[in-house]
Each structure stands twice: as C-alpha cells, then as structure tokens.
Amino acid sequence: MGGVGEPGRGPGPREGPAQLGATLPTFCWEQIRPHDLPGDKWLVIERRVYDISRWAQRHPGGSRLIGHHGGEDATDAFHAFHQDLSFVRKFLQPLLIGELAPEEPGQDGPQNAQLVQDFRALRQAAQDMKLFEASPTFFALVLGHILAMEVLAWLIIYLLGPGWVPSALTALILAISQSQSWCLQHDLGHTSVFRKSRWNHVAQQFVMGQLKGFSAHWWNFRHFQHHAKPNIFHKDPDVTVAPIFLLGESSVEYGRKKRRYLPYNHQHLYFFLIGPPLLTLVNFEVENLAYMLVCMQWMDLLWAASFYSRFFLSYIPFYGVRGALLLFVAVRVLESHWFVWITQINHIPKEIGHEKHRDWASSQLAATCNVEPSLFINWFSGHLNFQIEHHFFPTMPRHNYHKVAPLVKALCAKHGLSYDVKPFLTALADIVGSLKKSGNVWLEAYLHQ
C-alpha cells in the first residue's frame, strides 16, 4: 500500500509526534488495531491517528476512559464527551503521529458508514437548533427545589419534634432531595449546565460533596466509562458485577466453567435484599471513600466531610448520635432504592456482553432504552427516561431531550434500528425478569455442560 508505513512502525512514543507542517505518515486499520495494549494505545479521531500511550495517564477523564477506545475510531466519542472541541484539540496536536490512508474507511470493521454519517449530521442539526444550550432558569429551579426540601425536612423536626410520623416524613423528603441531587450532579458532570467546563466541575463538587457526601471525581471516573462502553464487561463498571450477579453473556461463561459462588438461578430474588437497599449505603460509601484516599482527592474529601458535619450537626440536637445515625441510614436506604431502579430500567434488560466494536450510535442503542415520558416521570427520573437521547448526546441539557427525540426516532427508522420505549412499570418488571432469565441461562449451562 503506497505511502503506508510498515506494521508496528511509524512515529511512536520513542520517536516523537509528527512535526507541525510536515507530511503525515499514513496508516491502515491493520496497523492501528494492534495498538490496544497496556502502555501502547493509538486511536483515530477525524481520520487522524494519535499515540496516547504516555499521555493517557494525564487524561482528565482518566486513562481507562480514553484507553477503552484503543485501536478504534473515537471520533464520535470525542465529540460526545467534550464541550469545547477547539480547546481540547490543542492537547491532541502533540500526540499526532499520522492519518488514515486515503483508501481506508473512516471506521474500522463492518460498521455502517451511512449510519455514522447520518448520526453526525443529526448531531450537527441538534447544534444548529441550539439544543446544546442550557436554560439557566431550569437548572436554578432544580437547585432551588433541592435546597427547599433540605430546609423543609429540618423544619418539620424543629417544629413537630422527632416523633415517628415527622421522622418518617423527614426521611422521605431528604431521600427525594438526595435523589434529585444525583440528577443535578449528573448534569454538571456532563458539563451540560454552564458554558465553561470549569464552572460545571466546581458546581458538581459542591452538589456531590456538600449536598450528597460523595466525590465528584469518583463519580466521573465510573460514569464516563459507562457512557464510553455501555453494557460492555470490564469497560462499564455498572455491569461488571460478577460474581454477585450474572448478567448477559457472563451467565453462559460462569455456567460453562462450573462456577457457583451464589445460587444465580435465584438472583432475581436476592436482588431485593442486597441490590436496592444497600447500593448507596454500603457499596458506594466504601468505594467512594477508598477512591478519595487512594487517588488523594483531598478537596473532594473535605467537601464530603462538610456534608456529614452539616447533617449530623443539624439532627443530633433532636435525635442524639444514635437517632441521627438511624435517620441517615433510613435516607440512604430510601435513596438507594430510587437509584437502583431508576438507573437500571434503561440498561439491565438490554444486551450485556463483551466488546463488539460497534459504531457510536449502534453501541448506545444496543445498551439503552427509554421509558414513556410524563411530567412526573421526567422529574422523578431526572429525565433519564430519555436514556437513548442522553447516551447519544451526553452533554445536551436534559430539558432538550424531548426536542431531539423525534430526530433520533427518524434516524433509527431509516436504518431499521430499534428505538425501544416502555411503560414505567414494565421497565421496572423487566429488571427482575432479566435477572431471572440470566440466572436460568447460567443454571442450564451449569447442569448440561
């Protein structure tokens, strides 16, 4: 192939990046694909080839996030995650080592080039419609109603005393406040509120730290991987839950290898005991603290400490230490139920397995579904019922999902792709049904292998 370097050759981490203004070496996909190893990562963005092997450790989103696209075309992921592309391209320039050969397709493998082109045209149409511009009033009201609930919860105890009825009402209001805080920090983490990324990050630290007691960096580390490779084992932390639960293809693998750590054919039942009640109370609390300490996120630790100080100083005078701790546990358990059901209705019932190297639109559609909208469901879920639109355009403000939805539906219809929308109760039931199905698949493989 004329002008294309030998496999494994070309400017690499030891030879330095391509010089500005110099003729760029060209590569074919057969040369790029092997560079998906620890310490050896190349990726393609807008037909240009970048060696991120050393720089990945300094990537603001984490080395895992960018590393998940090693040896692939990351153009659509690049556009999906970054708000100010011209600013980010300055960091890419020193990493540039070449470009795709003219005869090479823009995407590797048997991907639908027309679908990729149409998706990018859809994104441009959304930009032209100004759907990536946030409404300050909308997000001010979101923050305002969260703060109002925090104050109301305290006033109930202050005015009515710490009886069972006021305490139950306070716990419920605080749980709703915490749930809505998850949604707001999620918006900020995706830089979909303010024009400047820095303002989003600072505001997210406040909401995640002071209002919730968690680390913003920890959340972003987990959540961005989920968006990059949804429902992909070992790349999406949300579905890498074995050996506690088996999902999708892991059911067959564990069954064939005769692995039985738990009675997986009953996982749809023990899910109710260790899933919704304990996720935020136990798993998230431990994982979050470990992340802050290991990664030395001291500012996040201070923000989290401010939450616990405020909470216990507010309620210990009424309940004492034990009572305040019990109130905290009650709030976390209620919040955890909300978190598990709302975040999993869109993913658990969908395809879960190993890397398929699909294009951006196809990979998001295979792993997500929507829930029928209503004013209540939109508020209750933080607009995550528009999960397909959110995964297509992570930086789009959520109040614009309903506006882009018809365009997304049209794209799916044109290419014969499933645009899955369910009633809310059906989506909840499908979580349990999916767990039961996976457990039965494991049992069948376990007994008959």
Q: What is the topological layout?
A:
Elements: E1 26-27, H1 29-32, E2 36-37, E3 40-45, E4 48-51, H2 63-67, H3 75-81, H4 85-92, E5 96-100, H5 113-128, H6 136-160, H7 164-189, H8 197-210, H9 216-228, H10 249-256, H11 267-274, H12 279-294, H13 298-344, H14 360-367, E6 370-371, H15 375-380, H16 387-392, H17 401-414, E7 421-422, H18 424-448
Parallel strand pairs: 1-5, 6-7
Antiparallel strand pairs: 2-3, 3-4, 4-5
Number of helices: 18
Stretches where pLDDT is under 50 for at least 5 consecutive residues are 1-15
Tell me which oligomeric state these chains represent.
single chain
Give the mean pLDDT.
Answer: 92
Radius of gyration, in angstroms, nearest whole number:
23 Å
Distance between the first and last residues' Cα? 47 Å
Percentage of residues in helical conformation: 55-70%
Q: How many individual β-strands?
A: 7
Report the principal-axis shape: globular
Helix/strand class: mainly alpha
Strand portion: 5-15%
Largest sheet geometry: 5 strands, mixed
Helix-strand sequence: EHEEEHHHEHHHHHHHHHHEHHHEH
What strand order characterises the main sheet?
1-5-4-3-2
